[in-house]
Design goal:
globular, single chain, 77% helix, Farnesyl Diphosphate Synthase, 0% strand, mainly alpha
């Protein structure tokens, strides 16, 4: 049974239904995690605040806003209801356009390594969320690569146009976290769809919250240590 996802833990409990759907469709916990992974890479070596902010904005808009809007367009299920596809496309392409503009600026400036990373991320953004090629790329491996590994590499590349040993280590950690996240998330959705015991659902939800808050907190600590010390 398909659940109404406006009851999810990451959806506001206040405001009109359209507002709550608008926030919920962005899956902000997962968007925040991907943005944090990009921040990790940006903090792994030589650090410049402007580039740090830029890569965070790029990933928030592209893998966060754009990807999730496209997922609402191309997904087989409609947990948010029948949303206007034209509006979703406009939001997705607008967010992606801004992200591309920022990324291309730094790629042409002095970080050409962003080109191959951006091309790969762009492919997964459309192939995964619109389920191209019969949904062949809508799987865990694609998610781990596009959500867990490439954001860290992009964060490092925008700073120094290199992928250093620290960013490789961080990408390994982010890949493990992403695997745990998507595995738990899918079990959580299955439990809700099958009307499992509330205790089991709450346990899965607690794991998802712990991963989300843990990644965000560690990123804040990493930033403070890198910026002030």
């Amino acid at each position: 049974m398909q659940q109404d996802r406006t009851t999810e833990w990451f959806v506001p409990k206040f405001g009109p239904r359209n507002f709550r759907i608008g926030v919920g469709i962005l899956f902000l916990p997962y968007t925040s995690i991907v943005t944090c992974f990009a921040a990790w890479g940006s903090l792994s070596g030589q650090f410049e605040t402007g580039r740090f902010v830029a890569i965070c904005v790029i990933y928030f808009l592209s893998v966060g806003v754009s990807a999730h809007c496209l997922d609402a367009v191309g997904g087989k299920t409609k947990p948010w209801g029948n949303l206007p596809k034209k509006l979703l496309w406009i939001i997705a392409m607008s967010a992606l356009g801004i992200a591309l503009t920022i990324g291309l600026y730094y790629a042409f400036l002095d970080s050409p390594l962003l080109f191959p990373i951006g091309i790969a991320e762009g492919f997964f953004l459309f192939a995964y969320n619109l389920e191209w090629f019969g949904g062949k790329f809508h799987n865990k491996s694609s998610t781990i690569l596009s959500w867990g590994i490439l954001p860290v590499f992009a964060g490092a590349a925008i700073q120094t146009n290199t992928i250093n040993s620290e960013s490789v280590l961080l990408s390994f950690i982010s890949a493990i976290i992403t695997y745990a996240l998507i595995t738990t998330s899918r079990k959580y959705k299955e439990c809700k769809q099958n009307d499992a015991e509330l205790r089991i659902i709450r346990n899965k939800e607690l794991i998802l919250k712990s991963i989300t808050y843990g990644v965000i907190a560690s990123t804040v600590v990493f930033f403070v240590l890198r910026y002030f010390f």
